[in-house]
Amino acid sequence: MRVIVPVRCFTCGKVIGDKYYEFKVRVEKGEDPEKVLDDLGVERYCCRRTLLSHVELIDQSISYKVY
Question: What is the 3-class SS of 6-67, one letter each residue?
Fold first, then answer.
């Protein structure tokens, strides 16, 4: 699985990249995203926004070649 996750929040600079994989797995299992973010200690709304709105585009763009 190829994932490019922001390592830090774009707004405040807090490290959030280490929380993304667990967040994604727990949400896919059916847990409430709000509760998962609370459990992971992501309190700032800017950090929550960054994790919630992240879209994985690497698989779509990796098929292109640069010459």
Answer: CCECCCCCCECHHHHHHHHHHHHCCCCHHHHHHHHCCCCHHHHHHHHCCCCCHHHHCCCCCC
